[in-house]
Specification:
Elements lengths: L1 H14 L6 E2 L8 E4 L2 E7 L5 H4 L23 E4 L16 E10 L5 E7 L5 E6 L2 E7 L5 E4 L7 E10 L24 E7 L2 E6 L9 E9 L6 E6 L4 E6 L5 E7 L13 E6 L4 E6 L4 E4 L2 E4 L2 E2 L2 E7 L1 E2 L4 E2 L3 H14 L3 E5 L5 H9 L3 E5 L13 H16 L5 E8 L8 H15 L4 E6 L3 E3 L2 E4 L10 E4 L16 E4 L6 E5 L20 H15 L5 E4 L7 E2 L12 E2 L12 H12 L1
Helix pairs in contact: 3-4, 5-6, 7-8
This protein binds alpha-D-glucopyranuronic acid.
């Protein structure tokens, strides 16, 4: 009886949002969760019959003459989390629909609420609970949730998820992208039980430019909006008190003598956010990241970004990475190369990656897949841009390791509405979080007569002049690298080479001066020449080779040297160091 009252109290408030996935609450790891990871029954629906047959109804024959031409029973199982392509060979190249089913038993107490939370599903997810659609989500790399307080049954419940990784013209990304389109429920699935009023969100980071003052907020969700809030940092014997307003919002501002998070000492503090009805604990670091003139400053000290690009792929499993073990393979390899900065491309990576990287003392750029040919003039795209940006920022805004929000990669000024849409997106991102750097990664620079002309309207809205250049691979040198000339339209901004490099098949032998043989020597030469050129770049604040490991991309079909792999890795997919690795390692060692 009591539960019905509660449902009725909050029902009107939440009905409107029920079919739209909700923005996920922050810090799932610090909550009362029940994992739904593990084996899920599946139906591989390459024919697309699941919609008109309504697989989520799980019809059963009612009478002898009835026959139902689908069932989860008798079908294969897939592991969640995990992409579906790498789990069964018949799914290797599938871009389509797989239906997932999981059953769980639950008893929800009357004074509690329940949420179904997904770390990520690539690309479109439609979610059903006990035969009823509870909502959908678009976007393969950010979390989302649904409130199921008034939908969960006492005892056995059934979740069915339609996961579809078909490419969408007005999608993010759109049709063309140079990585493997791993589909499925690729990250954790959890049930999260909360109090009727719970701590939905908080932002606890140093104020822009400060080394000792936190400026943030706490947001409650529920009927008991006005509550006392305490923020404890036991190690600092700090206990800050404030109160939420009638909308459940409280501004937070306090100072302390923090041990700052730094590359050498990635210090994290246990931070406890407490309200009268809920408590959430987190591990948070405090650091200050800024651009001053042509320098990037970490805690007021100039820092040179010794970076590398990383795709979210476990090279040894040939699968989408998600676990802490997966991330450690990538992070240890980056550490081994001598990096202090990771450009995680071209989509928000899993939380394990962010948290482990932060613990290991890496600065991080997190990016949304606004990649090359985006249909900016499509009426749905601006909202998709904003939603994905908010989901990325929302999840990682308390991760001090994340210092850059990267909002686009290689989009073209000539594309209708590109500038307008991305300028608006930048302003919305800055309004959400003014403490981090924002960049747009460009490749529209001109290169003629051994001279670069670097200009793009988006640089007016970027904290760094970041660009990708493949001189020596896609574009031949037009003179001595050491005599390269530069016309950069933003002479006072730091310059970041966000991608450079070339391909080599580990162990490939052949004339070293010909790209055609994909030799390590040819790639090594590209790196040597690039380093020559780097010495000519004004305001250079960092470099980011493309990329750490060879990785899968179906567009790469030279079947002698690539075989579905982009071979620009400094490491092969077996972790073998190519000659160019040593050049980069040596350069970073000296930097
Ligand atoms: C681009 C792009 C990458 C791509 C790389 C390449 O610059 O950003 O995603 O993989 O070039 O061509 O290898």
């Amino acid at each position: 009886m009591a539960r019905i009252w509660v449902a009725l109290l909050i029902f009107p408030f939440f009905w409107a949002n029920s079919l739209q996935a909700q923005t996920a609450m922050v810090n799932v790891a610090g909550r009362n969760t029940t994992s739904l990871n593990g084996n899920w029954q599946v139906i591989i629906d390459s024919g697309g019959g699941g919609d008109w047959r309504q697989f989520w109804q799980e019809k059963k024959p009612q009478k002898k003459t009835d026959f139902i031409e689908y069932s989860f029973d008798g079908g294969p199982m897939l592991k969640v989390p995990g992409d579906f392509n790498s789990q069964r060979c018949e799914l290797t190249y599938v871009e389509g629909t797989v239906w997932y089913k999981k059953q769980f038993n639950y008893t929800l107490k009357s004074d509690k609420r329940l949420f179904l939370h997904f770390g990520a599903v690539n690309y479109l997810a439609e979610v059903y609970l006990n035969g009823e659609k509870i909502g959908s989500h678009e976007g393969g790399f950010t979390p989302f949730q649904f409130e199921i307080t008034n939908k969960v049954k006492e005892g056995e419940n059934t979740v069915i998820v339609k996961a579809n990784n078909n490419r969408l013209g007005n999608g993010l990304p759109s049709y063309g992208f140079d990585w493997f389109n791993y589909g499925g429920i690729t990250r954790d699935v959890d049930l999260i039980e909360t109090d009727i009023t719970y701590i939905d969100d908080y932002f606890i980071q140093l104020k822009k430019g400060s080394l000792d003052t936190v400026l943030g907020w706490v947001q409650l969700n529920g009927t008991k909006a006005t509550q006392k809030i305490k923020i404890h940092i036991p190690e600092l014997k700090l206990s800050y008190q404030t109160k939420t307003d009638s909308k459940g919002f409280a501004r937070v501002e306090f100072s302390s003598d923090f041990q700052l998070w730094s590359l050498a000492n990635p210090k994290l503090y246990q931070v406890i956010v407490e309200s009268e009805t809920d408590t959430v604990a987190d591990e948070i670091g405090f650091r200050c990241i800024e651009v001053k003139g042509n320098k990037v400053l970490l805690n007021k000290e100039p820092v040179f970004l010794k970076a590398v690009n990383i795709h979210e792929e476990n090279p040894y499993k040939r699968a989408r990475a998600y676990s802490t073990e997966d991330t450690k393979i990538l992070l240890n390899a980056a550490k081994d190369l001598g990096c202090n900065f990771l450009r995680l491309v071209h989509y928000p990576h899993n939380e394990n990656m962010i948290k482990e990287a932060e613990k290991m003392g890496f600065l991080i750029s997190s990016e949304i897949p606004v990649y090359q040919h985006i249909q900016f003039s499509d009426s749905l795209v601006p909202q998709k841009l904003e939603t994905m940006m908010r989901e990325m920022v929302n999840r990682d805004k308390n991760r001090c390791g994340v210092v850059v929000w990267s909002l686009s990669n290689e989009t073209y000024p000539g594309t209708p509405n590109r500038n307008e849409a991305l300028i608006e997106l930048t302003q919305k991102c800055k309004a959400l979080d003014s403490t981090r750097l924002i960049v747009h990664v460009i490749n529209t620079q001109g290169y003629g007569n051994n001279t670069f002309n670097v200009w793009d309207p988006l640089y007016n809205y970027s904290d760094l002049v970041a660009f990708n250049e493949y001189i020596g691979w896609y574009i031949p040198w037009q003179g001595k690298p050491s005599e390269t000339k530069w016309n950069i339209a933003f002479p006072d901004k730091p310059v970041f080479i966000s991608e450079f490099g070339g391909e080599a098949l580990y162990g490939s032998k052949g004339p070293t001066d010909e790209a055609a043989y994909w030799t390590e020597e040819y790639q090594e030469k590209i790196y040597k020449d690039q380093i020559e050129m780097f010495n000519t770049i004004p305001n250079l604040c960092g470099l980011c080779p493309w990329l750490l490991f060879d990785y899968r991309s179906l567009g790469r079909m030279n079947q002698v040297y690539q075989n579905g792999y982009n071979r620009k890795g400094l490491l092969s997919e077996n972790g073998e160091k190519k000659k160019a690795w040593y050049i980069m390692h040596e350069y970073y060692k000296k930097k």
